[in-house]
Amino acid sequence: MRTSPIVVTGLGLVTPAGIGTKATWERVCSAVPAAAVDPELHGLPVDFSCRVPGYESRRYLRVAGARRLGRFTQFALTAAYEAVEDAALQPGRWAGERVAVVVGNGAGDMATIEAQQLHLAHNGADLVSPLTLPVYLPNMVAGQLAIALHARGPSLQVSTACASGATAIGLAAQLLHSHSCDIAIAGGTEAVVTRLCASAFANMGVLSRRRDDPAAAGRPFDVDRDGFVLGEGAGILVLERAEDARTRGVRGHATLVGYGTATDAHHPVAPDPAATAFTQAIRQALGQAQAAPRDVDHVNAHGTGTPLNDQAEARALTALLGPRASVTSTKGVTGHLLGAAGAVEAALTVLTVAHRTAPPTANLHHPDPGIDVDFVTGRPRRQPIELALSTSMGFGGHNAVLAFRPAPSTGAPA
Question: Rounded to two decimals, what is the model's pTM?
Fold first, then answer.
Protein backbone atom coordinates (compact mmCIF):
# COMPACT_ATOMS: atom_id res chain seq x y z
CA MET A 1 0.00 0.00 0.00
CA ARG A 2 3.04 2.27 -0.16
CA THR A 3 2.70 3.44 -3.75
CA SER A 4 -0.98 4.27 -3.85
CA PRO A 5 -2.76 5.16 -0.60
CA ILE A 6 -6.38 4.12 -0.31
CA VAL A 7 -8.87 6.67 0.99
CA VAL A 8 -12.12 5.83 2.77
CA THR A 9 -14.54 8.22 1.09
CA GLY A 10 -17.83 6.76 2.33
CA LEU A 11 -19.22 5.06 5.42
CA GLY A 12 -22.50 3.26 6.01
CA LEU A 13 -23.60 1.51 9.19
CA VAL A 14 -26.60 -0.54 10.32
CA THR A 15 -25.98 -1.77 13.86
CA PRO A 16 -27.69 -2.47 17.17
CA ALA A 17 -26.38 0.96 18.21
CA GLY A 18 -28.47 2.63 15.51
CA ILE A 19 -29.36 2.76 11.84
CA GLY A 20 -26.89 5.07 10.15
CA THR A 21 -23.33 6.16 10.87
CA LYS A 22 -24.26 9.17 13.01
CA ALA A 23 -26.61 7.22 15.28
CA THR A 24 -24.15 4.36 15.70
CA TRP A 25 -21.20 6.64 16.46
CA GLU A 26 -23.12 8.66 19.03
CA ARG A 27 -24.32 5.59 20.93
CA VAL A 28 -20.91 3.91 20.84
CA CYS A 29 -19.38 7.07 22.27
CA SER A 30 -22.06 7.18 24.96
CA ALA A 31 -21.18 3.59 25.96
CA VAL A 32 -24.86 2.64 26.28
CA PRO A 33 -25.15 -1.12 25.58
CA ALA A 34 -27.72 -2.29 23.05
CA ALA A 35 -28.27 -5.72 24.63
CA ALA A 36 -31.86 -6.46 25.66
CA VAL A 37 -34.25 -9.35 26.21
CA ASP A 38 -35.21 -10.81 22.84
CA PRO A 39 -38.76 -12.25 22.61
CA GLU A 40 -37.75 -14.42 19.65
CA LEU A 41 -35.25 -16.22 21.88
CA HIS A 42 -37.74 -16.86 24.69
CA GLY A 43 -37.16 -20.12 26.51
CA LEU A 44 -33.58 -20.60 25.33
CA PRO A 45 -30.56 -20.77 27.66
CA VAL A 46 -29.64 -17.25 26.48
CA ASP A 47 -32.72 -15.13 25.74
CA PHE A 48 -31.18 -11.72 25.03
CA SER A 49 -29.32 -10.26 22.07
CA CYS A 50 -28.27 -7.09 20.28
CA ARG A 51 -30.71 -6.51 17.42
CA VAL A 52 -30.85 -3.63 14.97
CA PRO A 53 -33.61 -1.40 16.40
CA GLY A 54 -36.76 -0.79 14.37
CA TYR A 55 -35.43 -1.95 11.03
CA GLU A 56 -38.01 -2.12 8.20
CA SER A 57 -36.79 -2.85 4.69
CA ARG A 58 -39.51 -0.80 2.98
CA ARG A 59 -38.35 2.27 4.88
CA TYR A 60 -34.65 2.00 4.06
CA LEU A 61 -34.40 0.26 0.69
CA ARG A 62 -35.09 1.55 -2.80
CA VAL A 63 -35.03 -1.68 -4.79
CA ALA A 64 -37.86 -3.77 -6.16
CA GLY A 65 -38.55 -6.90 -4.16
CA ALA A 66 -36.59 -5.71 -1.14
CA ARG A 67 -38.84 -7.64 1.25
CA ARG A 68 -37.89 -10.87 -0.50
CA LEU A 69 -34.19 -10.36 0.24
CA GLY A 70 -32.50 -11.96 3.21
CA ARG A 71 -32.12 -9.81 6.30
CA PHE A 72 -28.33 -9.83 5.98
CA THR A 73 -28.65 -8.56 2.41
CA GLN A 74 -31.12 -5.86 3.46
CA PHE A 75 -28.66 -4.61 6.08
CA ALA A 76 -25.82 -4.52 3.56
CA LEU A 77 -27.86 -2.66 0.97
CA THR A 78 -28.97 -0.07 3.50
CA ALA A 79 -25.39 0.49 4.65
CA ALA A 80 -24.14 0.60 1.06
CA TYR A 81 -26.64 3.26 0.05
CA GLU A 82 -25.49 5.44 2.93
CA ALA A 83 -21.81 4.85 2.15
CA VAL A 84 -22.17 5.67 -1.56
CA GLU A 85 -24.14 8.83 -0.79
CA ASP A 86 -21.56 9.81 1.83
CA ALA A 87 -18.84 9.42 -0.82
CA ALA A 88 -20.74 11.80 -3.15
CA LEU A 89 -20.99 9.10 -5.81
CA GLN A 90 -23.90 8.36 -8.13
CA PRO A 91 -24.13 4.71 -9.21
CA GLY A 92 -26.25 5.56 -12.22
CA ARG A 93 -23.47 7.74 -13.59
CA TRP A 94 -20.28 5.88 -12.75
CA ALA A 95 -18.41 3.42 -14.97
CA GLY A 96 -19.86 0.27 -13.48
CA GLU A 97 -17.22 -2.02 -14.97
CA ARG A 98 -14.65 -0.22 -12.76
CA VAL A 99 -16.61 -0.71 -9.52
CA ALA A 100 -15.92 -3.73 -7.31
CA VAL A 101 -18.03 -5.21 -4.51
CA VAL A 102 -16.37 -7.24 -1.74
CA VAL A 103 -18.55 -8.29 1.19
CA GLY A 104 -17.71 -10.47 4.18
CA ASN A 105 -20.31 -12.78 5.72
CA GLY A 106 -20.15 -15.81 7.94
CA ALA A 107 -23.39 -17.73 7.60
CA GLY A 108 -25.80 -16.38 4.99
CA ASP A 109 -29.48 -15.95 5.83
CA MET A 110 -29.92 -18.55 8.55
CA ALA A 111 -33.49 -17.44 9.31
CA THR A 112 -34.53 -18.55 5.83
CA ILE A 113 -32.89 -21.95 6.19
CA GLU A 114 -34.49 -22.53 9.59
CA ALA A 115 -37.96 -21.49 8.36
CA GLN A 116 -37.79 -23.63 5.22
CA GLN A 117 -36.56 -26.64 7.15
CA LEU A 118 -39.71 -26.38 9.27
CA HIS A 119 -41.82 -26.20 6.09
CA LEU A 120 -40.12 -29.33 4.80
CA ALA A 121 -40.58 -31.21 8.07
CA HIS A 122 -44.21 -30.26 8.68
CA ASN A 123 -45.71 -29.49 5.27
CA GLY A 124 -43.70 -31.47 2.74
CA ALA A 125 -41.24 -30.75 -0.04
CA ASP A 126 -43.75 -29.00 -2.28
CA LEU A 127 -44.04 -26.07 0.12
CA VAL A 128 -40.31 -25.34 0.31
CA SER A 129 -39.82 -21.94 -1.33
CA PRO A 130 -37.93 -21.86 -4.63
CA LEU A 131 -36.35 -18.65 -3.33
CA THR A 132 -34.67 -20.47 -0.43
CA LEU A 133 -31.19 -20.66 -1.94
CA PRO A 134 -31.19 -17.27 -3.73
CA VAL A 135 -32.11 -15.69 -0.39
CA TYR A 136 -29.83 -17.79 1.82
CA LEU A 137 -26.59 -18.17 -0.14
CA PRO A 138 -23.81 -16.03 1.39
CA ASN A 139 -22.53 -14.82 -1.99
CA MET A 140 -25.92 -13.35 -2.86
CA VAL A 141 -25.23 -10.26 -0.79
CA ALA A 142 -22.37 -9.27 -3.09
CA GLY A 143 -24.50 -10.11 -6.11
CA GLN A 144 -27.46 -8.09 -4.91
CA LEU A 145 -25.26 -5.08 -4.09
CA ALA A 146 -23.77 -5.29 -7.57
CA ILE A 147 -27.25 -5.35 -9.11
CA ALA A 148 -28.55 -2.45 -7.03
CA LEU A 149 -25.45 -0.30 -7.54
CA HIS A 150 -24.78 -1.18 -11.20
CA ALA A 151 -21.34 -2.47 -10.24
CA ARG A 152 -19.97 -4.75 -12.97
CA GLY A 153 -16.39 -5.11 -11.75
CA PRO A 154 -15.15 -7.91 -9.47
CA SER A 155 -17.84 -9.15 -7.09
CA LEU A 156 -16.60 -11.27 -4.20
CA GLN A 157 -17.96 -12.80 -1.02
CA VAL A 158 -15.45 -13.41 1.78
CA SER A 159 -15.90 -15.83 4.65
CA THR A 160 -13.29 -15.80 7.42
CA ALA A 161 -15.79 -16.05 10.29
CA CYS A 162 -15.58 -13.05 12.62
CA ALA A 163 -12.73 -11.56 10.58
CA SER A 164 -14.80 -11.55 7.37
CA GLY A 165 -15.58 -7.84 7.24
CA ALA A 166 -11.97 -6.81 7.83
CA THR A 167 -10.70 -9.37 5.32
CA ALA A 168 -13.13 -8.03 2.71
CA ILE A 169 -11.82 -4.49 3.18
CA GLY A 170 -8.24 -5.68 2.90
CA LEU A 171 -8.98 -7.61 -0.30
CA ALA A 172 -10.83 -4.62 -1.75
CA ALA A 173 -7.74 -2.48 -1.15
CA GLN A 174 -5.66 -5.05 -3.02
CA LEU A 175 -8.06 -4.84 -5.98
CA LEU A 176 -7.57 -1.08 -6.03
CA HIS A 177 -3.79 -1.43 -5.84
CA SER A 178 -3.81 -3.84 -8.77
CA HIS A 179 -6.03 -1.44 -10.74
CA SER A 180 -8.68 -4.13 -11.10
CA CYS A 181 -11.17 -1.41 -10.16
CA ASP A 182 -11.34 2.32 -9.40
CA ILE A 183 -14.00 2.18 -6.67
CA ALA A 184 -14.55 -0.61 -4.16
CA ILE A 185 -17.69 -1.11 -2.09
CA ALA A 186 -16.43 -3.25 0.79
CA GLY A 187 -17.50 -4.42 4.22
CA GLY A 188 -19.43 -7.08 6.05
CA THR A 189 -22.93 -8.09 7.08
CA GLU A 190 -24.57 -10.66 9.33
CA ALA A 191 -28.03 -11.60 10.60
CA VAL A 192 -27.88 -14.80 12.63
CA VAL A 193 -29.83 -13.86 15.75
CA THR A 194 -32.00 -16.95 15.36
CA ARG A 195 -33.07 -19.68 17.75
CA LEU A 196 -30.78 -22.26 16.17
CA CYS A 197 -27.70 -20.04 16.11
CA ALA A 198 -28.31 -18.67 19.60
CA SER A 199 -28.68 -22.21 20.94
CA ALA A 200 -25.54 -23.41 19.18
CA PHE A 201 -23.42 -20.51 20.41
CA ALA A 202 -24.82 -20.89 23.93
CA ASN A 203 -24.00 -24.59 24.00
CA MET A 204 -20.46 -23.79 22.86
CA GLY A 205 -20.11 -21.68 25.99
CA VAL A 206 -19.24 -18.44 24.19
CA LEU A 207 -22.36 -16.40 25.03
CA SER A 208 -22.77 -14.42 28.23
CA ARG A 209 -25.34 -15.92 30.62
CA ARG A 210 -26.23 -12.66 32.43
CA ARG A 211 -29.97 -13.05 31.88
CA ASP A 212 -30.73 -10.88 34.90
CA ASP A 213 -28.91 -7.88 33.43
CA PRO A 214 -28.42 -8.08 29.64
CA ALA A 215 -27.13 -4.51 29.38
CA ALA A 216 -24.18 -5.47 31.57
CA ALA A 217 -23.54 -8.78 29.80
CA GLY A 218 -20.98 -7.73 27.21
CA ARG A 219 -17.80 -6.99 29.19
CA PRO A 220 -14.75 -6.91 26.92
CA PHE A 221 -11.48 -7.39 28.82
CA ASP A 222 -13.21 -7.23 32.20
CA VAL A 223 -12.16 -9.76 34.81
CA ASP A 224 -15.84 -10.74 35.20
CA ARG A 225 -16.51 -11.34 31.48
CA ASP A 226 -18.32 -14.56 30.62
CA GLY A 227 -18.94 -14.36 26.87
CA PHE A 228 -20.28 -12.13 24.13
CA VAL A 229 -23.79 -10.99 23.21
CA LEU A 230 -25.02 -12.15 19.80
CA GLY A 231 -25.62 -9.22 17.46
CA GLU A 232 -26.45 -8.36 13.85
CA GLY A 233 -25.84 -5.56 11.38
CA ALA A 234 -23.66 -4.34 8.54
CA GLY A 235 -20.81 -1.97 7.83
CA ILE A 236 -19.89 -0.81 4.32
CA LEU A 237 -16.97 1.40 3.29
CA VAL A 238 -16.30 3.06 -0.06
CA LEU A 239 -12.62 2.87 -0.94
CA GLU A 240 -10.79 4.76 -3.68
CA ARG A 241 -7.20 5.48 -4.60
CA ALA A 242 -6.15 8.78 -3.08
CA GLU A 243 -5.35 10.39 -6.44
CA ASP A 244 -8.81 9.51 -7.77
CA ALA A 245 -10.51 10.94 -4.71
CA ARG A 246 -8.41 14.07 -5.01
CA THR A 247 -9.42 14.44 -8.65
CA ARG A 248 -13.05 14.33 -7.54
CA GLY A 249 -12.30 16.95 -4.88
CA VAL A 250 -13.06 14.50 -2.07
CA ARG A 251 -10.80 14.31 0.99
CA GLY A 252 -12.40 11.31 2.64
CA HIS A 253 -12.55 10.28 6.27
CA ALA A 254 -9.23 8.46 6.66
CA THR A 255 -6.55 6.62 4.72
CA LEU A 256 -6.21 2.84 4.76
CA VAL A 257 -2.44 2.39 4.94
CA GLY A 258 -2.00 -1.24 5.97
CA TYR A 259 -3.58 -4.69 5.97
CA GLY A 260 -2.24 -7.82 7.59
CA THR A 261 -3.60 -11.35 7.76
CA ALA A 262 -2.32 -14.60 9.24
CA THR A 263 -3.73 -17.89 10.53
CA ASP A 264 -3.32 -19.52 13.94
CA ALA A 265 -3.31 -23.11 12.64
CA HIS A 266 -4.09 -24.02 16.23
CA HIS A 267 -7.75 -25.00 16.89
CA PRO A 268 -11.14 -24.76 15.14
CA VAL A 269 -12.57 -22.24 17.60
CA ALA A 270 -10.08 -21.47 20.40
CA PRO A 271 -7.49 -18.74 19.78
CA ASP A 272 -3.80 -19.51 20.01
CA PRO A 273 -2.86 -18.45 23.57
CA ALA A 274 0.48 -17.18 22.27
CA ALA A 275 -1.32 -15.08 19.61
CA THR A 276 1.62 -15.62 17.25
CA ALA A 277 -0.38 -15.20 14.04
CA PHE A 278 -2.34 -12.28 15.47
CA THR A 279 0.94 -10.52 16.23
CA GLN A 280 2.18 -11.41 12.75
CA ALA A 281 -0.90 -9.78 11.19
CA ILE A 282 -0.28 -6.61 13.19
CA ARG A 283 3.33 -6.51 12.06
CA GLN A 284 2.25 -6.98 8.44
CA ALA A 285 -0.19 -4.08 8.66
CA LEU A 286 2.44 -1.88 10.29
CA GLY A 287 4.99 -2.87 7.66
CA GLN A 288 2.68 -1.75 4.89
CA ALA A 289 2.03 1.45 6.80
CA GLN A 290 5.80 1.99 7.12
CA ALA A 291 5.32 2.26 10.86
CA ALA A 292 6.64 0.67 14.04
CA PRO A 293 4.63 -0.55 17.06
CA ARG A 294 5.62 2.59 18.94
CA ASP A 295 3.80 4.67 16.30
CA VAL A 296 0.36 3.20 17.08
CA ASP A 297 -1.88 5.66 18.91
CA HIS A 298 -5.10 3.66 19.15
CA VAL A 299 -6.49 0.14 18.74
CA ASN A 300 -10.12 -0.83 18.19
CA ALA A 301 -9.66 -4.35 19.53
CA HIS A 302 -11.58 -7.48 18.62
CA GLY A 303 -12.44 -7.74 22.34
CA THR A 304 -15.33 -10.20 22.31
CA GLY A 305 -15.70 -10.60 26.07
CA THR A 306 -14.91 -14.32 25.99
CA PRO A 307 -12.27 -15.38 28.54
CA LEU A 308 -9.79 -16.98 26.12
CA ASN A 309 -10.03 -14.48 23.25
CA ASP A 310 -9.60 -11.38 25.38
CA GLN A 311 -6.70 -12.88 27.27
CA ALA A 312 -4.79 -13.84 24.13
CA GLU A 313 -5.46 -10.53 22.41
CA ALA A 314 -4.63 -8.36 25.41
CA ARG A 315 -1.39 -10.20 26.07
CA ALA A 316 -0.34 -9.71 22.47
CA LEU A 317 -1.20 -6.02 22.55
CA THR A 318 0.70 -5.64 25.83
CA ALA A 319 3.78 -7.38 24.46
CA LEU A 320 3.81 -5.56 21.12
CA LEU A 321 2.44 -2.09 21.86
CA GLY A 322 2.70 -1.66 25.63
CA PRO A 323 0.68 1.03 27.41
CA ARG A 324 1.25 3.82 24.86
CA ALA A 325 -1.71 3.09 22.57
CA SER A 326 -5.23 3.60 23.81
CA VAL A 327 -7.39 0.48 23.41
CA THR A 328 -11.15 0.09 23.17
CA SER A 329 -13.67 -2.59 22.25
CA THR A 330 -17.00 -1.39 20.91
CA LYS A 331 -18.63 -4.80 21.34
CA GLY A 332 -19.71 -3.79 24.84
CA VAL A 333 -22.27 -1.58 23.06
CA THR A 334 -23.02 -3.40 19.81
CA GLY A 335 -22.58 -7.01 20.82
CA HIS A 336 -20.66 -9.32 18.50
CA LEU A 337 -21.73 -8.88 14.88
CA LEU A 338 -19.69 -11.90 13.74
CA GLY A 339 -19.03 -11.57 9.98
CA ALA A 340 -19.95 -7.88 10.09
CA ALA A 341 -17.87 -7.07 13.17
CA GLY A 342 -14.59 -6.33 11.39
CA ALA A 343 -16.23 -3.95 8.92
CA VAL A 344 -18.31 -2.12 11.54
CA GLU A 345 -15.26 -1.75 13.77
CA ALA A 346 -13.14 -0.59 10.84
CA ALA A 347 -15.72 2.14 10.19
CA LEU A 348 -15.66 3.10 13.87
CA THR A 349 -11.86 3.23 13.74
CA VAL A 350 -12.09 5.53 10.73
CA LEU A 351 -14.40 7.81 12.73
CA THR A 352 -12.01 7.64 15.69
CA VAL A 353 -9.21 8.90 13.44
CA ALA A 354 -11.40 11.54 11.79
CA HIS A 355 -12.78 12.90 15.08
CA ARG A 356 -9.58 12.32 17.07
CA THR A 357 -11.80 10.71 19.67
CA ALA A 358 -11.54 7.18 21.09
CA PRO A 359 -14.84 5.65 22.23
CA PRO A 360 -14.96 4.02 25.67
CA THR A 361 -15.32 0.30 26.34
CA ALA A 362 -18.76 -0.27 27.87
CA ASN A 363 -18.95 -2.37 31.04
CA LEU A 364 -15.17 -2.48 31.53
CA HIS A 365 -14.80 -1.84 35.26
CA HIS A 366 -12.05 -4.23 36.37
CA PRO A 367 -9.49 -5.07 33.66
CA ASP A 368 -7.76 -8.41 33.85
CA PRO A 369 -4.74 -8.17 36.15
CA GLY A 370 -1.39 -8.42 34.41
CA ILE A 371 -2.58 -6.62 31.29
CA ASP A 372 -0.56 -3.47 30.70
CA VAL A 373 -2.96 -1.79 28.27
CA ASP A 374 -4.38 1.73 28.32
CA PHE A 375 -8.08 0.94 28.05
CA VAL A 376 -10.50 3.76 27.29
CA THR A 377 -13.31 3.61 29.84
CA GLY A 378 -16.09 5.81 31.15
CA ARG A 379 -16.29 8.48 28.49
CA PRO A 380 -14.80 9.21 25.05
CA ARG A 381 -11.18 10.32 25.06
CA ARG A 382 -9.95 13.17 22.91
CA GLN A 383 -6.42 12.44 21.73
CA PRO A 384 -4.08 12.94 18.76
CA ILE A 385 -4.42 9.90 16.49
CA GLU A 386 -1.97 9.59 13.62
CA LEU A 387 -2.15 5.80 13.36
CA ALA A 388 -4.94 3.47 14.49
CA LEU A 389 -5.47 -0.27 14.15
CA SER A 390 -8.67 -2.30 13.88
CA THR A 391 -8.06 -5.92 14.86
CA SER A 392 -10.22 -8.96 14.07
CA MET A 393 -10.03 -12.65 14.96
CA GLY A 394 -12.27 -15.49 13.80
CA PHE A 395 -13.11 -19.16 14.23
CA GLY A 396 -10.70 -21.23 12.18
CA GLY A 397 -7.80 -19.11 13.40
CA HIS A 398 -8.34 -16.20 11.01
CA ASN A 399 -6.69 -12.90 11.95
CA ALA A 400 -7.03 -9.63 10.06
CA VAL A 401 -5.68 -6.18 10.96
CA LEU A 402 -6.36 -2.86 9.24
CA ALA A 403 -4.26 0.29 9.78
CA PHE A 404 -5.62 3.80 9.27
CA ARG A 405 -4.12 7.31 9.19
CA PRO A 406 -5.83 10.69 8.80
CA ALA A 407 -7.02 11.48 5.30
CA PRO A 408 -4.64 13.40 3.05
CA SER A 409 -5.34 17.00 2.21
CA THR A 410 -7.04 17.55 -1.16
CA GLY A 411 -4.53 20.26 -1.96
CA ALA A 412 -1.31 18.28 -1.48
CA PRO A 413 0.06 15.06 -2.90
CA ALA A 414 -1.06 11.99 -1.01
Answer: 0.96
